[in-house]
Amino acid sequence: MLLSYRQMHTITSSLHLSPLHMIMNGRGRDVTLILKVSRINTVVTRKREQRVLFLVVTMVVCYLLCWLPYGIMALVATFGQPGLVTPEASIVPSLLAKTSTVINPVIYIFMNKQVSAVTRDVIIRVSPVSQRPSTWRSKFLQS
Fold this sequence. Notes:
- The chain has helices at about 5-35, 45-80, 90-110, 115-125, 135-140.
- It is flat.
- The model has no long low-confidence stretch (mean pLDDT about 75).
- By secondary structure, it is mainly α.
- It contains five helices and no strands.
- Helix 3 crosses helix 4 (about 115-125).
């Protein structure tokens, strides 16, 4: 049985809701665990929880900002008048959806201290010796 163009778009549009549901469900559990642990009144624990909560909220908001235009465009193309969504109008939502794969690592690098430190170390190791800080240069020349 062959599916029509509208049926294919409907199926594709509904598949975009599945990752959103999984993210909201998984991150929702993270947030509830954070809120349960927040009863511990240590300053360090509170700061860590707030950073994690901010990281989770930022990731969900960025996911929505990247995929919501694409989902809306797909729904309009599916249920709207034929020819309403032109190829030119679909470029920006498609590019936004594709940038979502780049945004998550960037969020982790800037908002997670451990990932940031490891990334910094990797960048320093990959950079040429002349561009490394003097402490790294001296260690490199000694070995």
